[in-house]
Design brief:
By secondary structure, the chain is of the alpha/beta class. It has helices at about 10-20, 40-50, 65-70, 70-90, 125-140, 165-175, 190-205, 220-230, 260-265, 275-285; strands at about 1-5, 25-30, 55, 95-100, 145-150, 150, 180, 185, 190, 210, 220, 235-240, 255. The strands form 4 sheets. The chain has a 6-stranded parallel sheet with strand order 2-1-3-4-5-10, sandwiched between helices. It has a 3-stranded mixed sheet with strand order 11-8-13.
Length: about 290
């Protein structure tokens, strides 16, 4: 199968490209310098050369503060870009797999969000990503919108200064010996390699529509940090930060846990417990 991965040099995109290649597919990796996703002509010219059967969009403007400062640019990339891909996917009769986010929710539910729950974004990033979902689902004849949460992977994440949460915690432990982490914000840490394998499995089905795709279980950021230090044998003083100690510049959901209900109903869920993904990551980067 011929697969085009948009954002193939990113934290998730690199693992998606590798997973499809490992599955025997012919992968064309497309990076920002080769395609301007917000311009239909650019999207069309690149994809008509690649002629993929599956298009996986991992590209996004996902620096939350920058999205808030420049919502027009965020909308151009996250919403119009998604629409452009959907339109060209139709022209090529290709499946479009579009990666979205837990930030489409406000975090007020306090039990895992299912695909049928009504979204209510708190910020420009969440709003533009939700608009992208609607474009994909209304325009692309063959579509799979994949919402995920709490990503970390082997490839540096540019939007987070090159450090994912795992590496940031280990760096702070080395440099300071004491780390304070919020204990009132909940997420499901998800290893990008596991998400990539799930995307491959989903793309091979005839399923259409919206899917939540995260590791199993959930934790606070404090609990995530504690597991990181435990598995790596890191000697550090870990303390729970007090409420409001690290005020966010932009509103964010305090509860970002997703339930993979649609995947499970179809017998397609491939995820393990989030702790297992963390162990695999630590082994892959030589920290276990």
């Amino acid at each position: 199968m011929k697969v085009a991965v948009i954002g193939a040099n990113g934290q998730l995109g690199s693992d998606v490209a590798a997973a499809f290649s490992a599955a025997g597919d012919a992968v064309t990796g497309i990076v920002h310098g080769e395609m301007e996703i917000s311009e239909l002509a650019s999207v069309r010219s690149v994809l008509r050369v690649a002629v993929p059967e599956v298009i996986v969009n991992t590209a996004a403007m996902h620096h939350v503060e920058q999205c808030e400062q420049d919502p027009a640019r965020a909308y151009a990339v996250n919403a119009i870009g998604a629409r452009n891909l959907a339109q060209v996917a139709n022209e090529l009769k290709a499946l479009l797999v579009h990666v979205s986010t837990d930030y489409v929710f406000d975090g007020g539910k306090r039990t895992p969000y299912e695909e049928t729950d009504a979204p209510l974004p708190l910020n420009a990033y969440g709003n533009t990503k939700l608009a992208g979902e609607y474009f994909v689902r209304s325009v692309a004849a063959r579509n799979q919108v994949v919402r995920t949460s709490g990503l970390y992977g082997k490839r540096p994440c540019r939007a987070k200064g090159g450090l994912n949460f795992v590496e940031l915690m280990l760096k702070l432990a080395r440099e300071k010996g004491k780390v304070r982490v919020v204990d009132d914000e909940f997420v499901t840490p998800t290893f990008t390699a596991e998400l990539a394998e799930q995307i491959v499995a989903l793309s091979r089905s005839n399923a259409n529509g919206l899917f939540h795709a995260t590791a199993e279980g959930s934790c606070s950021w404090f609990e995530f940090a504690r597991e990181i230090f435990s598995l790596t044998g890191t000697h550090v003083t870990l303390e729970a930060a007090s409420a409001g100690e690290f005020p966010a510049k932009v509103p964010r959901p305090k509860y970002s846990v997703l339930e993979n209900r649609a995947l499970k109903l179809l017998g397609l869920n491939t995820f393990r417990a989030w702790q297992d993904g963390l162990r695999e990551y630590l082994g892959a980067v030589g920290r276990a």
